[in-house]
Known about the structure:
The chain has helices at about 10-20, 35-40; strands at about 5-10, 20-30, 30, 55, 60, 65, 70-75. By secondary structure, it is an alpha+beta fold. The N and C termini lie far apart (about 50 Å).
Amino acid sequence: xAEISVxxxxxxxxxxxxxxxxxxxxxxxPATVLDLxxxxxxFPTIHPQLPIAVVFDQTxxxxxxxxxxxxxxYLMPPVSGG
Length: 82
């Protein structure tokens, strides 16, 4: 079974939770955004209902979006401020 390797940049609280802003995610092919979301569930400090946007090519991607080897994805938590 082939494995993909994807560069991921995390922002905000996700960067703090994951311990770094850039990391490589490896997963067996095929992979989707839902697979990435399920992988994030292993981190108990990320609330399971946190709406994390997965961005590729400046577009929010749905759960069924297929992730291919070599892609660069961005994880965006909700943003608030004042």
